[in-house]
Amino acid sequence: MKTKKVLAGFTAAAIAASMITGCGSGAKTETAVSTEAETTAAEEKETTAAETAQDTEKRKERILTVSGNGDFGFPSVYTISPKGQGYMTLSYIFDTLMWKDESGLIPYLAEDYSVSEDGLTYTFQLRKGVSFTDGTPFTAEDVKFTFDYMKEHPYKWVSVSMVEEASVVDEHTVEIKLNKTYNPFLSDVAGSLPILPKHIWENVTEPETFTEPEAAISTGPFILENYDSAAGTYTLKANEDYFYGDVQIDKLVIANVSGGDSKEALLSGEIAAAPNISYKAAMSLKDSPEYTVLEGPGLSVTRLYFNFDEEAMAVKEIRQAMYHAVNLDEIVEKAYGGAGYPGSAGHVQPGTPWYNPDVRQYAYDVETAKKMLSEAGAADSNGDGILEYNGEEMSYTLTFTENDEKLAELLVSYMKAVGIELVPQSADDATVKAAISEGNFELAFNTNGSFGGDPVFLSRFATVGADGAPSVTGQGGTTWESEEYNRIYNESAVEQDDAKRHQQVNELQEIIAEELPCLTLYYKKAVAAYNNTIFDGFYYTPDGISIAVPFIMNKLVFVSGQWKAQ
Amino acid sequence: MKRGGKMVRTYGLYLVLILCISFFLPRFLPGSPLSVLDEATASQNMEAFPDTFREYYAPEKPEAVQFLLYLKHLLSGDLGYSLTGKRKVADMIGESLGYSLLLAGLAMTVSTCIGVWYGMRAGLKEGSSPVRLFPLILLQAVPVFLLAESLRLLFSYRLSWFPSRGAYSVGMHPSSEGFLLDVLYHMVLPLTVMILSEIPGIAVFTYNSTVRIKKQQFVRMAVYLNLTQNIIEKKYFFRNILPEILGKLSIQSISCVAGTMFVEAVFAYPGIGMLLRTATANRDYPLMQGILLTVCTLALVINAIFEFLIQQISRR
Amino acid sequence: MKKIWSRLSAVQRICAGICIFYFLAAAFGPIFSPFPPDDFSSPALLPPGRVHLLGTDEMGHDIFSMVLSGFRYTMLFSLTAALGSVSLGTVLAFASLYFPRIGRGINHLATVFLIIPDILLILFVAAFAAPTCTNTILSMIFFSWPRVFRIARSRLSACFSSNKVAYTMLIGGNMWDVIRKLWHDGYPVIGTLFMMQASRAVTYETTLAFFGLGDPLLKTWGRLIRSALNYENFFYDNTWCWYLLPAMICVVVYVAVLSVLVFDEGKV
User: Fold this and answer.
1) Which helix (H) or strand (E) holds A107?
2) Which residues does the UniProt record annotate as the domain Solute-binding protein family (chain A) (predicted)?
3) I want to staple C33 with a disulfide (CB 3.0 to 4.6 A). Which of A102, A185, B260, C65 is the partner?
């Protein structure tokens, strides 16, 4: 039948076409790196084959596959996502002057350092004999170049605005002059800035689109072998001449396995480590001997923002009453399934080195909250269950990210119990963050990370900098202001004496706890699980890697850990 | 020939309409950064977007210029830069489209064969009552993503017969050995879900068409009863219902494409559906718009092909 | 009313009965609800028991109460969306026939919207517009009228060419007379269309909720299904039996029942 043949032919052609495009499009995603790597791998295979012919031992390739959150950009400094996992992957390829391990800050590319008395000049003695993976030796020129380049092309994760000048003293010595004292310079800048090889980057004028293979060359423990953007997979090959030590695996594969699927992938053996596993899934693996579950501070904080344009919000007692109305423990349990800790009024997380245990806390007490509200002048005159303050109904929109609906529901309910109405308004995270930074909200809550390490993050409540200029806080609109806070904060930012600084930071926390510029609600817990029969030795770096990134796969793990599988 | 010309003109008009929709929709939605209804907030939100976004959309220019600019970009295949992926939208869609077409194409083919066969058989049976169709109606009532999750639960997690996610295993890429087999293995579940969700529509429609013809041709049926029937009957029926079936398939293909997107979202299958899911979650406007335009154009093309086929067949 | 009932087959009568049950559950269900659906004071993740017939979710909401409240939202969504799209579609269908010149234009517009997968457009709009109930319903109406339009138009055009109407128009009757004549033949189609749209609206809502769009604090079945699917141990324990299944069954039965009612054998 002609029609049938036409149909059959058509469908066959359609299948064939789609199969070809399907397989073809998969192949298209590989970057040029893979062909290079394949030819070098082929060469390597030849030499290794010759070697193993002589060797009695035959070693299988040690490939470590871990879960990642999909495609977060080409692994170069300006193209990878600046957030947590992006930075971690970048650190496998790029090294920094200082780094952190289990004990704390350690010298890395810089062998030694000294700080001038006034705290404005840092001199780094660089390690000798280190070279980039393309063979070029690493010198002080590269360090100077990196600082200069980043001044011209700001790097999203780390700002170098406090650097006045970087100068080369000799081939392995570099001097960095700051324009103001900056306490976290060593940990946050020297410990985070990836060093760019000068000979590759000196002619790059548009770093955001620089995705050539050379963009991923540096001194790090791994070399980029393949970046499959469609599948969200990164394949890294070990750098056999790594200066810090022997890399204990041959290949690292970061595969696109989301948090919800990572437990299953771990159990089926598809991945060896799941740093993004969800809390309950990790807890369910706790009792298995072949899986190790690690818990650590999540270095992130969730807080409720006030817009001080609202009359009632500007009244301290009302804010305090609202804090009493919130059940912080229930939030941890109900909204987050126990995967975190209740907030502290002083903002700094309990259990961290800078925490002040003597700050005022606000116990969950609805009656006290109601009393404080009525004492402040809020009363329900028309009997509709909502308080009025100065003639205005205490009804506010609550802006929040759509995935946080559990916390939103809790807050709406808590406030309703004391007579404040919250109208929930959800949006995607980027919109919420933008709204907060512009002051386009009445009440909002949001989570932000990088919450740990040096208490420089307390600058978010300071409105005026040391030079008298208004400082940028994360929040727009009318914010809370306190001259005393600004004064103490600006002093602490330049204070060299540790004991004195501790005292200043304690005072800051007391002010925060008393004034409540925001309500600190919740600190997230970080959790990860891995198969210890394949590779062991992961740990959570205290205070996080770089600027408070909680991740078990500090690149040092690949040098200090052990490959267990046969 | 005239008919062909008319068809070309009509589809040309449709294409223009789709382009207009794709252009105007983000501009009339409140909350969109390109919104013309609330320009103040829109331009404020614009600050957060990278230069590539502003260059592509040129919001400061008058609407007519923007539209022409948009058309110009489209002609050169430029769909803008994705905010999340930081790559060209056209590239991202191009890489994913193949997998979606693969899944949708195979699903459509298999479900058509099974659906038409089953529908006709059910329709031709003596004293046919629609009761035998109820399981199909029930199946059709299940939203496709729920069907996907249920099958995933049963076959991937409880029985461990099939992988639960992805188009191929972690670490594999097209040059690895056994890649094709791996892809097929990973495709079984998503394909099954798609087939199950498409069969009911086609089968029920075929049943109704067959019954309609049967009712009309009741008298003729008596004559046919004397001959060795089945094949002749089926050929006769098939030829008569074919144009209608093609019409239904045309619409069904579109819903198949839409359904594929949801199945991909569930199985983390790297097609357009996955892109859409991440784009929606992050409000990646250029990517969403690109996907919308691509799928709409695809739908138009599919529709045109089917209409052409119907014309060819009806003409005999 | 009696005429309609007698025209239905036995199975269809059962389905109609189920529909009525849904309606009653929407109207009176919350009276039987042991807890307010947004009450989370109970312990989390309890299995079914005497106090909580279907157990509780991760926050402590009583699942049975949430399922009951879902009836209300479902009815709200499906009835308003159906009403809106059927009205819009029918009016446009009538206009396109009564004023044939703009009729062709509307027809083309409707065809384009029929070619495009409507769920995609709804998703697009839901992603950008503020996530409220009203916006969701409005977008459903706006994108599903073409289907109504198409069917209404084909049915009405048959009526238009009938003698009755032609005669009315001939003697110079105005628009309202024509409408009255059409109504007599046309209203069964409207009923069918209404049910068809009602079932589609529920599927849309469920799909939108799955993508995380729509009002996040409203306890609809779509949201319940989404929560159930997002439950961390969904694949590993049996919680889905009482967390996912009830809402899923409610949705599936509703859509299936409406499809059966709309099903007309031999009518394509």
Assistant:
1) strand A104-107
2) 105-459
3) C65
| CA C179 centroid distance within chain | 26
Contact criterion met (CB below 8 Å) for A193 and A155: yes
B contact test, residue of A5, A7, A11, A18 with most B CBs within 10 A = A18
In 3D space, the residue among B238, B234, B109 whose CA is nearest the CA of residue A8 turns out to be B109
Selected for mutation to probe chain C from B22, B128, B146, B242 (highest C CB count within 10 Å) is B146
Contact A26 B167 (CB under 8 A): yes
pLDDT of B263 higher than 70: yes
pLDDT digits (tens, 9 = 90+) for A27-60: 333 333 333 333 333 344 444 444 444 443 446 7
Q: How far is A15 from chain B (nearest CA, A)?
A: 6
Query: What is the structure's pLDDT at B48?
Result: 60
Give me the phi and psi of A541, to 5 degrees please: -65, 125
Residue-level pLDDT at B36: 65
Q: Does any CB of chain A come closer than 8 Å to the CB of residue C237? A: no
Query: Looking up tokens 């030694």, which residue turns up?
Result: A112
Residue from B82, B170, B252 whose CB has the most chain A CBs within 10 Å, to mutate: B170
Residue C53 sits at the chain B interface (C-beta within 8 Å): no
A334 by Cβ neighbours in 10 Å (0-12 / 13-18 / 19+) ranks as buried
Tell me the angle at which helices A2-28 and B89-124 cross, rounded to the nearest 10 degrees. Answer: 150
Are A398 and A445 a contacting pair, CB within 8 Å? yes
- Ranked by mean pLDDT, which of A406-415, B165-174, B243-252, C187-196 comes out on top? A406-415
pLDDT at A107: 92
Sort C33 into a burial class: Cβ within 10 Å, 0-12 / 13-18 / 19+: middle
Which residues in chain A land under pLDDT 50? 1-10, 12, 14-58
C130 touches chain B (CB under 8 A): yes
CATH class entry, domain C57-263:
mainly alpha
CB C106 within 8 A of CB B270: no
The ipTM estimated for the assembled molecules is 0.85
The alpha carbon of residue A452 is apart from the nearest alpha carbon of chain B, in Å, by 26
Q: Which positions in chain A touch C58 (Cβ < 8 Å)?
A: 334, 337, 406
B184 exposure class (CB count in 10 Å sphere: 0-12, 13-18, 19+): exposed
**Better-scored residue on pLDDT, A16 or C50:** C50
**Residue type at A183 in one-letter notation:** N
**Residues A189, A158: Cα–Cα separation, whole Å:** 6
Provide the pLDDT for residue A42. Answer: 39
Q: Per residue in A331-389, pLDDT tens?
A: 999 998 889 999 999 999 887 888 999 999 999 999 999 999 999 888 888 888 888 88
Cβ distance of B138 and C256 shorter than 8 Å: yes
Q: What is the CATH T-level fold of the domain A300-524, as seen in this structure?
A: Dipeptide-binding Protein; domain 3 (3.10.105)
**Residue C235 forms contact with A (CB below 8 Å):** yes
Mean per-residue pLDDT over chain C, rounded: 84
Smallest Cβ–Cβ distance between C59 and the set A280, A281, A406 belongs to A406
* Topology classification of domain A94-209: Dipeptide-binding Protein; domain 1 (3.90.76)
Domain boundaries, chain A: 2-60, 61-93+220-296+526-566, 94-209, 300-524
Residues 62-121 of C with CB under 8 A from B: 108-109, 111-112, 114-117, 119-121
**Which residues 121-150 of C have a C-beta within 8 angstroms of A?**
130-131
- How far apart, in Å, are the Cα atoms of B192 and each of B26, B150, B187? 35, 12, 8
B282 vs A369, residue with greater confidence: A369
**Domain at A61-93+220-296+526-566, CATH class:** alpha beta
The tokens describing C41, both together, are: 């004071």
